[in-house]
Design brief:
Helix content is 51%, strand content 11%. It is mostly helical. Strands 1-2 form a two-stranded antiparallel sheet. It has helices at 6-20, 23-26, 29-43, 53-56, 77-84, 89-96, 98-129, 147-163, 171-179, 224-227, 229-241, 253-270, and strands at residues 130-135, 138-146, 187-192, 197-202, 207-209, 219-221. Among the domains are: 6-129; 229-270, no CATH class. Strand 3 (187-192) and strand 4 form a beta hairpin. It is an enzyme of class 2 (transferase). Its main location: nucleus. Pfam families: Telomerase_RBD (PF12009).
C-alpha cells in the first residue's frame, strides 16, 4: 500500500519536533513518552472525531518541563503591568500568595505551550508532508499518503481520465463556458481504492473562478446543485402527481427503501415462499451524452 501507517506518521512528527524544539522545552523522557503517546492518539483519530486540549495534556500536567520552574512571578507580563498601572488581578493575587499564583502561572503557560505545539507544529507538519483522506471501503478511517506519492497517484489517475471520458480545457475554453451560464463546475477529488482511484464530484459547493488576468480578482459562482433546484422541484411534483411517470427513478435512499419494501410485500403476499432475488449491477462509467 502507498499510504503510511499511523506509527510511521507519529514517528516522523516526533522526529521533526526533536529537530526543531530545544531539548529544554521538551522536558525529560517521561514527558517525551507522554507527548509521543498523545501525538499517536491524535494521528490515529477517525473522521469526525474531536481532540481537545485535555487530551493533548494527558499524563503531562503532573510532570511539567524544568524550564517552567525558572519562570518567576516578576517575569510575567501581567505582573509588570500591575507594577506600572496597578490593575492586574493576577499579579495582585500573586503579591498575596506567591506560591499559589506561581503554580497557576506555570500551569497556564504549560497549557499554552502544549496548545501551541499541537496547533502550530503537529498540524502544519501533517498538512505539509501528507495528503490525508479516507478510502472507498474505509470511510471512517484516516489514511496518510506522503505528498510526493499522492501526486504520482493523482497524476496517473488524471492520465487515465483523459484516456476515458474527460478532456482538459485550456483557459480560453474554460472562461467561455463560464461566460455562457450562471453556475460553475463541480469540485472533484480522488478517493483511493485498492488498485486505483475513484473520482468523486461535489456539486453542492460554490465554484471559485480564478482570474488569469492579474488585474482581475477571483470570484464565486453558484454551485451546480443550486442551478438545478427548480428542475428538481418540477420532477418531484411530477412524481407526486403521477408516481409511474418517472418509472423506477428515485431521489434518495428513502425512495429506494420504499420501492424495495413494496416489492418485498407484493412477493411475500403472493407466494408462500420468497423466491431467490437476483441483483444486477451495471457499470455506468461511460453513460454520458
Amino acid at each position: 500500500e502507498a499510504y503510511c501507517t499511523n506509527h510511521q506518521v507519529a514517528s516522523f512528527i516526533w522526529a521533526v519536533i526533536r529537530s526543531i524544539v530545544p531539548p529544554d522545552l521538551l522536558g525529560d523522557r517521561s514527558i517525551w513518552r507522554a507527548l509521543r503517546l498523545n501525538i499517536s492518539k491524535f494521528v490515529g483519530l477517525q473522521r469526525f472525531e474531536m481532540f481537545d486540549l485535555s487530551q493533548c495534556l494527558h499524563r503531562l500536567e503532573s510532570s511539567q518541563p524544568p524550564f517552567l520552574s525558572q519562570i518567576r512571578i516578576s517575569d510575567c507580563c501581567c505582573y509588570k503591568l500591575w507594577v506600572c498601572i496597578g490593575n492586574c488581578s493576577c499579579a495582585k493575587e500573586g503579591s498575596c500568595n506567591s506560591s499559589k499564583s506561581k503554580i497557576r502561572l506555570h500551569n497556564r503557560l504549560f497549557r499554552h505551550w502544549i496548545y501551541w505545539l499541537f496547533s502550530s507544529l503537529v498540524v502544519p507538519v501533517i498538512s505539509n508532508y501528507f495528503y490525508v483522506t479516507e478510502r472507498q471501503f474505509d470511510k471512517l478511517q484516516v489514511f496518510y499518503y506522503p505528498k510526493p506519492v499522492w501526486m504520482k497517484l493523482a497524476d496517473n489517475a488524471t492520465v487515465y481520465l483523459k484516456e476515458q471520458n474527460y478532456e482538459q480545457l485550456n483557459d480560453a475554453s474554460y472562461m467561455s463556458i463560464i461566460a455562457k451560464r450562471r453556475f460553475g463546475f463541480s469540485r472533484v477529488r480522488f478517493l483511493p481504492k485498492k488498485n486505483k482511484m475513484r473520482i468523486v464530484a461535489n456539486t453542492k459547493a460554490p465554484c471559485e473562478i480564478k482570474a488569469y488576468d492579474q488585474n482581475k480578482r477571483s470570484f464565486f459562482v453558484k454551485s451546480v446543485n443550486s442551478s438545478l433546484k427548480e428542475l428538481h422541484a418540477i420532477l418531484r411534483r411530477v412524481k407526486n402527481e403521477n408516481p409511474y411517470a418517472l418509472g423506477s427513478s428515485v431521489f434518495g435512499y428513502h425512495d429506494v427503501y420504499q420501492k424495495l419494501y413494496r416489492f418485498h410485500q407484493e412477493i411475500k403476499g403472493a407466494l408462500l415462499m420468497v423466491p431467490l432475488v437476483y441483483i444486477v449491477v451495471g457499470d455506468v462509467s461511460k453513460a454520458f451524452d
